[in-house]
Design goal:
The complex is a heterodimer of chains A (about 280) and B (about 80). In chain A, strand 3, helix 5 and strand 4 form a beta-alpha-beta unit. The longest helix of chain A is centred in the first third of the chain and has 33 residues. Chain A is globular, with a radius of gyration of 21 Å. Chain A has a 7-stranded mixed sheet with strand order 1-7-6-2-5-3-4, sandwiched between helices. Chain A has one domain: Glycerol-3-phosphate (1)-acyltransferase (3-Layer(aba) Sandwich). By secondary structure, chain A is an alpha/beta fold. Chain A is built from 8 helices and 7 strands. Chain A starts with a helix and ends in a 6-residue tail after the last helix. Chain B has one domain: Non-ribosomal Peptide Synthetase Peptidyl Carrier Protein, Chain A. Helices cover about 50% and strands about 0% of the residues of chain B. Chain B is built from 3 helices and no strands. The radius of gyration of chain B is 11 Å and the shape is globular. Chain B starts with a helix and ends with a helix. Classes of the chains: A alpha/beta (about 280), B mainly alpha (about 80). The interface between A and B is medium-sized, with 13 and 17 residues.
Chain lengths: ~280, ~80
């Protein structure tokens, strides 16, 4: 009997540990249901755009460059709509500092990647941009239509990614890359791949870092979408100063890209983007 | 047409210039991944560089089976006779 009581106590304290006595605020349950519904809407809209609307655009726009511009504008509008929705309904808050610096020709944007919806902010507010996207999205039934219609670039195989990114920048497009290649894990230091630095040295006219943070942490790699924070999360996006690439270009690409990679890693590590 | 020795000299020069490798480490038996620490991104840079020198459009796919410097020389030798 006594053993059982102890067991109960143990359970209770574990329970207490996992759910600390921070009160769920900002209409927690409404935010939970609302977040779920919004993701459902987001998935449905992505699917309908990819399989119905973008093919229609394709039909009436034979010119490839124009077709991509139109498709991206539409997807960008969709992402802005999603963001206005979730922030308008007070599920999230966000602040975007310096977004007028996005979307210049030949500009490479590199951003850290703390949450699932980072791309919505960047492509929503720089809708002409193309983006390096996980190759799996080109096979996923929901996202396939959208990413092919917009002419985004799959991240594998490596040689195709680098050459496609180079061609996009040389052609005057804006390109978005998340150098980590995937979402970061809160509390762990950022691990960036060298691909972004390589592409920058090869072909970017302008390199611009974007620092993203989300407080309290949510929609991160280690958490499912329904583990929403107790209080309303706030995204802060800050567009940094352009990085001078000419300083790197006196060396061959592999050496220059290693230098730039090290500098970028230091810049992001020092920018306080690692969530607690 | 270049001899195998000429190809080797070009490859070694390229590896030294691009990756700041020490010339004596670039021997025919050297493995790219373990001995020379050339990763997949470096491989793209190397192939782009060599295709400019040999004035041939090649894809890294042509080099898929390449593991050592010697493999690479074989591969270039085959490509230049095609």
């Amino acid at each position: 009997m006594r053993g059982r009581t102890d067991q109960l106590h143990a359970d209770a304290s574990e329970h207490f540990y996992e759910w600390p006595a921070v009160k769920r605020t900002d209409y927690y349950w409404l935010r939970l249901v609302g977040t779920g519904l919004w993701f459902l809407v987001f998935g449905l809209v992505t699917f309908v755009l990819g399989f119905l609307v973008l093919p229609l655009i394709r039909l009436v726009t034979p010119d490839r460059a124009r077709r991509r511009r139109r498709s991206r504008a539409l997807l960008g509008a969709g992402m802005r709509f999603f963001l206005h929705g979730v922030s308008g309904l007070r599920f999230i808050e966000y602040e975007f500092i310096g977004r007028e610096k996005l979307g210049r020709p030949g500009q490479l944007l590199v951003a850290n990647h703390p949450t699932l919806i980072d791309v919505c902010f960047l492509l929503g507010f720089a809708p002409t941009a193309t983006c390096i996207v996980k190759a799996g999205h080109f096979r996923n039934l929901i996202t396939r239509g959208a990413v092919t219609g917009a002419g985004y670039i799959p991240n594998a195989p490596t040689e195709d990614m680098i050459h496609a990114a180079e061609a996009a920048l040389r052609g005057g497009e804006t390109l978005l890359m998340f150098p980590e290649g995937t979402r970061s894990v809160p509390g762990k230091p950022l691990v960036m791949q060298r691909g972004a630095a390589n592409v920058a040295v090869r072909a970017a006219r302008v390199l611009t870092p974007v620092f993203i943070s989300c407080e309290p942490s949510t929609l991160s790699k280690n958490l499912p979408w329904y583990r929403i924070p107790r209080s309303r999360p706030k995204w802060t996006l800050r567009v940094g100063d352009d990085i001078d690439l000419e300083a790197y270009r006196d060396a061959p690409v592999p050496i220059a890209s290693r230098r730039l990679h090290a500098d970028l890693a230091g810049l992001f590590a020092g920018a306080n983007t690692v969530p607690d | 047409m270049k001899s195998r020795q000429e190809i080797f000299d070009i490859v070694r020069r390229s590896l030294v210039d691009l990756f700041e490798l020490e010339e004596p480490t670039v021997v025919p038996e050297a493995r790219f991944d373990d001995d020379l620490e050339i990763d997949s991104i470096d491989a793209v840079d190397l192939v782009d560089h060599l295709s400019r020198i040999f004035e041939r459009r090649v894809s890294p796919r042509d080099f898929r089976s390449v593991r050592t410097v010697n493999d690479l020389i074989d591969c270039i030798d085959r490509l230049q006779t095609q």
